[in-house]
Structure to design on (505 residues):
């Protein structure tokens, strides 16, 4: 036989054997179940996905078979009615069986062919039964006084809690180095072995916090994509960023970079975290946290994003356009000049015919034709001489503005003579007469301006997708607060003024 053909036949036969070895085959003998169909569901970050279906269950036998290996991680068995029965591991072993009884699912769980599931089931049996003991303690206080009941419950809870902590510590030590350890470690908070006392004689809470924060991700291998296919990894990450670290954009940026640096670039965990943090902080309603989104886009997406992130070149370009707008509107960014026309010259400018122009060229030509007349009419943002400028974008035909703008004026009356501020109120539409009438009717004592010449590209430069939009600028026209409601403006001005006074002491 030709040696080359023989070589191909050997490789081909080995390929068939390897494929057969890698196929998954999970049998679950579910005694007493009334289900006729069940689903094999995979955890991935904070989502669950059906990866296989058993459509015919006979005598409680549930089978999931496939020619391809399953992704390694934690899976769950789900009923046709979407009830979650129990979790189990799919790792190196992809051919194994599980038996359980519907009358007591957890305590009857057994596995053959998967040592990890045997270990895991022993753990959840202990924890489940201890939880049942916790639940029964209150029933044992019947007939006792309130004081005796409280003492009894506290003593029992303490004893049970000590049992659980000891079991957990012994168990984790026993399974260290296994995937079971890696998974359970994700839900384990790290406490200091010994907590020193503070000057008041109590446990030092500052020490406890820094230990807790510093050891929060101990033992977690961010280079192992299996951990993202568990029910605990997303909770761990979210808890750290939402509840553990200081909620300041610079702190968040620093912590994100440290966490992502732990991952292998372009891995499932890396890409998931990049997408998650980018989306989270783009959508954030907390003032100043758009800085995190700008950082994420600049560092991880715009400058050479992985194809595995799922962003098309068109999407990346849109993200870049969005970021280029937002970076100029971050807190402490200095806004660019605005050349506006106020109500005094409104009628004169409207007669020049800018509202009838059909193209940008015709607007430009008309502008230069009238430049000599227009120049002395301009009212600019940087002409406003005040410690604080309340920069407001609104439209006279906006229902919400019709309520908020008069309310803003009323609210600000309380600060007159106390804080040095002025309001630069920009009408975003061209309807001069309706705008002017509203100002007169509501007696708005702002610097009321509009842009009939379309010089300023307001909507894009100031990210105006709805009105009103309110910024507070300092004397140098740097953004100190933004996207405030009329009710928030007065409190924010007080806070800024107090901070400034304290800083100058």
């Amino acid at each position: 036989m030709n040696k080359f053909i023989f070589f191909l036949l050997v490789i081909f036969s080995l390929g068939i054997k390897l494929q057969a070895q890698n196929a998954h085959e999970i049998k679950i003998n579910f005694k007493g179940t009334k289900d006729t169909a069940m689903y094999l569901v995979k955890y991935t970050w904070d989502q669950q996905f059906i990866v296989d279906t058993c459509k015919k269950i006979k005598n409680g036998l549930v089978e999931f078979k496939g020619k391809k290996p399953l992704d390694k991680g934690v899976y769950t068995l789900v009923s046709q009615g979407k009830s979650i029965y129990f979790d189990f591991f799919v790792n190196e072993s992809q051919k194994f069986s599980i038996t359980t009884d519907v009358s007591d699912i957890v305590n009857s769980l057994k596995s053959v062919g998967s040592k990890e599931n045997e270990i895991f089931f022993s753990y959840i049996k202990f924890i489940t039964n201890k939880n049942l003991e916790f639940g029964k303690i209150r029933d044992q206080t019947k007939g006792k006084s309130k004081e005796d009941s409280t003492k009894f419950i506290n003593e029992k809870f303490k004893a049970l809690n000590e049992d659980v902590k000891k079991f957990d510590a012994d168990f984790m030590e026993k399974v260290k180095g296994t995937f079971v350890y890696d998974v359970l470690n994700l839900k384990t908070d790290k406490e200091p072995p010994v907590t020193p006392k503070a000057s008041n004689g109590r446990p030092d809470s500052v020490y406890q916090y820094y230990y807790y924060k510093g050891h929060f991700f101990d033992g977690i291998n961010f280079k192992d994509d299996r951990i993202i296919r568990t029910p605990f990894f997303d909770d761990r990450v979210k808890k750290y960023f939402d509840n553990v670290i200081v909620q300041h954009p610079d702190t968040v940026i620093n912590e994100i970079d440290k966490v992502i640096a732990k991952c292998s670039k372009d891995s499932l965990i890396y890409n998931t975290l990049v997408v998650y943090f980018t989306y989270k902080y783009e959508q954030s309603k907390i003032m100043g946290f758009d800085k995190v989104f700008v950082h994420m886009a600049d560092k991880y997406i715009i400058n050479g994003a992985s194809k595995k992130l799922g962003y098309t070149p068109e999407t990346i370009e849109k993200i870049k356009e969005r970021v280029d707008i937002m970076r100029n509107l971050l807190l402490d960014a200095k806004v660019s000049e605005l050349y506006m026309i106020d109500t005094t010259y409104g009628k004169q400018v409207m007669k020049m015919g800018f509202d009838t122009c059909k193209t940008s060229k015709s607007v430009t030509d008309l502008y230069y034709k009238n430049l000599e007349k227009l120049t002395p009419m301009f009212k600019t943002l940087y002409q406003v001489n005040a410690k604080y400028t309340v920069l407001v974008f609104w439209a006279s035909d906006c229902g919400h503005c019709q309520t908020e703008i008069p309310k803003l004026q009323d609210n600000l009356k309380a600060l007159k003579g106390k804080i040095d501020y002025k309001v630069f109120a920009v009408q975003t539409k061209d309807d001069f007469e309706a705008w002017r009438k509203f100002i007169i009717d509501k007696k708005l004592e702002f610097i009321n301006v509009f842009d009939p010449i379309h010089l300023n590209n307001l909507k894009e430069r100031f990210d105006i997708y709805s009105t009103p939009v309110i910024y507070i600028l300092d004397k140098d026209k740097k953004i100190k607060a933004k996207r405030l409601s009329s009710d928030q403006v007065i409190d924010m001005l007080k806070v800024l003024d107090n901070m400034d006074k304290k800083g100058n002491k």
